[in-house]
Amino acid sequence: MKVLGICGSPRKQGNTDILLERALEGAASAGADTGKIVLDELDISPCGEEEYYKVNDEGFSVVDDDIHKVFRGIMAADALVLASPVFFGSLSAQTKTMIDRFQCVWLAKEILHKDVFVKRIKGAFICVEATDREDFFENSRSIVRHFFATANIAYAEDLLCGGVDAKGKVLDRPECLEKAFDMGRNLAEAPSAEDKS
Q: Are strands 153-161 and 33-38 parallel, antiparallel or unpaired?
């Protein structure tokens, strides 16, 4: 069992990263092999015009940058935990840029009728914001649901942790830490990719 974490926060060891690490610890406690991609450490360009009408032979982007590390990572995984802070009522730029680059996958799937992510995997979403605005969480969650559907990922569960701003503040929220750990363990233990969206 391989559980991949993708961190969309630009702040190293911040609240989003802490919760993602807890989820990966939970997965490891259930015997999973875990890995992590930090989007801020990758060179990923915004979606360009060519990605709206052209894909490579695999159905991936024709642009040769680090998005291919994300494609390969998800393809090799059995479960995914995507984690992002809320910026201006939505996902971080790093997370949204990554998602936009899956336009090629949507094109391959919906227009060219070519399955790219054949294996259905389980997915979970961690979202952190300084306020407690439900509409910010819902906007972020809606984008992630569409992303998961495009990449053949079953939306299994999410953790929406509000009211944390200062770096490390989430360490004062044991209920969020516990839920993140349980999320990872659930992903590693669940027998199938059941969509709860």
A: unpaired
* Residue range 171-186, pLDDT digits in tens: 999 999 999 999 999 9
Residue 96 near residue 138 (C-beta atoms within 8 A): no
Q: Which of 187, 176, 197 is nearest to 80 (CA)?
A: 187
Give, in order, the Cα–Cα distances in Å from 137 to each of 150, 161, 183, 188: 20, 9, 18, 25
Identify the weakest region by mean pLDDT among 37-41, 53-57, 129-133.
53-57
76-98 burial code (b ≥16 CB/10 A, e <16): ebbbbbbbbbbbeeebbbbbbbb
3-class secondary-structure state, position 65: coil
Angle between helices 93-100 and 134-150 (to 10 degrees): 30
Could you give the CA distance from residue 90 to residue 136 in angstroms, rounded to a whole number? Answer: 6
The architecture (CATH level 2) of 2-189 comes to 3-Layer(aba) Sandwich (3.40)
Angle at 81 between CA 53 and CA 42, to 5 degrees: 55
pLDDT digits (tens, 9 = 90+) for 111-139: 889 889 999 999 999 999 999 999 999 99
Query: What is the number of other CB atoms lying within 10 angstroms of the CB of residue 37?
Result: 20
